[in-house]
Each structure stands twice: as C-alpha cells, then as structure tokens.
Amino acid sequence: MRHISILIAILSFAISANAAMFISVDGQSNPADTSVLLLPSETLSLGIISNGSSQGMYFLGITEFSPASLDIGSVIVPYPGEPPIEPYPVWDPIIPGLKLPIIEFDFFNPALPDVPLMGLLADNVILHADNYGDTLVMLYGWDDINLFVMDTQVIHQLPEPGTIALLGFGAMLLKRRR
Predict the structure, then answer these.
(1) Where would you tag: which of 14, 105, 168, 177 has the fewest CB atoms within 10 A of its CB?
(2) Taking Cα atoms as reference points, which of 107, 174, 112, 169 lies closest to residue 142?
(3) Total domains, the chain
(4) Where do the DSSP E strands lie in the chain?
(5) Residue range of the domain that includes 131
(6) Residue 96 maps to which CATH number?
(7) Interacting residues of 171 by C-beta distance below 8 A, sequence separation 6+
(8) Has residue 16 got a pLDDT over 70?
(9) The dihedral of CA 12, 19, 17, 69: what is its sign?
(10) Would 9 be classed as within a structural domain?
(11) What pTM was computed for the model?
(12) DSSP, residue by residue, 149-165
C-alpha cells in the first residue's frame, strides 16, 4: 500500500509540474500555499487562470460530500472565442465523485486554434458555504481521450463564532463532568 501511495504522489507531482491552468480564489491566482478560510454565511468567487494551456474542454466542480455549492448564474468568460463561449452545467455525471452542477468550459477560438490560452479565462463562479468543513474544488482537463486533474483548491469552512463558543462551552462541561 505504501508503494502505491508513493507512486500516486510522484505522478501527481508530474501532472502538477506540467499544469498551466489554475483555480483563482477572489482574484488571487493559485493560492495553494495559503489557507482559504470561509464562514458558513460567506461566499467567494472562483475563476480559471491560464499561463499557456492548450485550447479545449475543461471542467470545474467540487467533491460530492463537500459542504458547499456552486452558483454559476453570474459567470464571466472574457476569453475571446467565436461565438462567445458560455459555460453550462453538465447534468450527466461525467466525472464520478463530483457534486452537480459540474461546470464545463469550452475554450476554443476557431480563428486561432493553435494559440495557447493566456490570462483570466473564467471568473465569478460563486461558491457558497453550506456548512463547516473542508471543500475540495477540482479543475479537470480533457484531451479527447482522458480526463486529468489540472488543479485543486481546498476551502476551509469554519463554524461561525457563536457555534465555536457553544462547542467550547460544551467541551468544558463534559471535561468538568469527568
């Protein structure tokens, strides 16, 4: 089992080294080294940023049991495609383990098919905190044969201060009882 986990870690480093597309959180590109904290009543804006990916089909979603949901009602796609490229929810669970809607982005520019994608590709995908816990956001690419993970982002959803105070008070009562 240990050898399998080492192999998976090595392969994931290889994939992430070649990845050129990232999830942005509230305009901050690829905040992997910082924790993203969110209260249950708050929302944040997710986006997709590229620094040289090929044109194609990409999927954004969150894992099935994550205590959050995506709202795609206000998504902005500034990438110049013809006709204007619009994201739409994929209701057929193409990617097992992700919660619906899984958002598909088709980034194609027929006038310049070989030009790599650069800059902000999509913005303002709203993530709502439904409860506390960690939410894993995943960005997949599609190369006509396989789906592959481009980037992941963990959002730590904290309980609101009143809930934390009640949990602490309950823990003190339990400790006192013993």
Answers:
(1) 177
(2) 107
(3) 1
(4) 21-25, 28-29, 36-38, 43-53, 56-63, 68-71, 88-90, 98-107, 117-129, 133-142, 147-157
(5) 21-177
(6) 2.60.40.1930
(7) none
(8) no
(9) negative
(10) no
(11) 0.73
(12) EEEEEEEEEPPPHHHHH
